[in-house]
Write a structure and sequence with these properties.
alpha+beta; FAD/NAD(P)-binding domain; D-Amino Acid Oxidase, Chain A, domain 2; 8-stranded mixed beta sheet; 9 helices; 32% strand
Amino acid sequence: PEEVQVAVAGGGPAGLAAACALRSRGFDAHVFEGAEALLRRGTGTGIMVSANGWKALAACDAALPAALRAAGVEIVRQNITVCDEGGGVARAVGRDAGGMEERFGYAQYNVPWADAHAALAARLPGEVVHCGCKAVGYRDALEAGGVRLLLEGGQEVRCSLVVAADGAGSALRAQVAGAGEGGGDDARPTTQLLWNALIPTERLEGVSRELPGVHRPGEVEFVTCGLDGKAILAFDSGADGLTSWYLTLDESDAPEAVRAALRSGDFGGFGHAGRADALREAFSDFPGALALLRATDEAAIFERRLADRQPLSAEQWHDG
């Protein structure tokens, strides 16, 4: 379209939620997504939604909480185990989460990222989501009393408001915030490395649920492994009998094969050959992590280097 009331740049969960909220209040909000297809393969990532998250979703669209709960699984307990570098348990604490709904009005749930994304997309009419439309910037449209969203390829969309939800490499954030500390498009890579996967929970049958890092049904298992940034996380993911697991390491503690991949630029994405062996080396003293790796096809392991940004100041987060 050449003109809409509100243009939301980015069709991820944030952009879809923003569009749902705007449309539920009567605004003609359209989503402009750079990818050719809106829904895509999940990376095993899950979203933990607590009472404040459910309330925010309900404020966006009253139907969203039920849609996401249908795709998720309720958390009944959270366990934290503190281990030393050799895998010995120093301390273990747990907290039942079953009373959350009585106390706060909503239970805690784990929802797979891809399922949450799909549930949000289902609340929007197909004709207001435009794929293959990558936002590259904006400019004032003073003659129309608004703004023009600039798309890759030269197309412009006139609107009254642009909402920037175009992800980690946001072109709009760079333009709004400007260069310098707290602005620009310069996400800061950290030294934190993460691997995760989504596997059928049935593959863990016969594995002792007493092992730190192996979760019981409805429980979240988090293990710190004696070094800064080294941890195991596992939990039920969604309503389809799946387990989501995460392993994290600081770059300085990663095996040489991983550091070599970082140096060569061959790090990130799915299924790098030999990566499971490197993780087995790194977590050799943690049987729970080894059990998760045995249950996982190497091609299903997704890896990334985490990054963050300086927060925007009150003057930087908007233009106009």
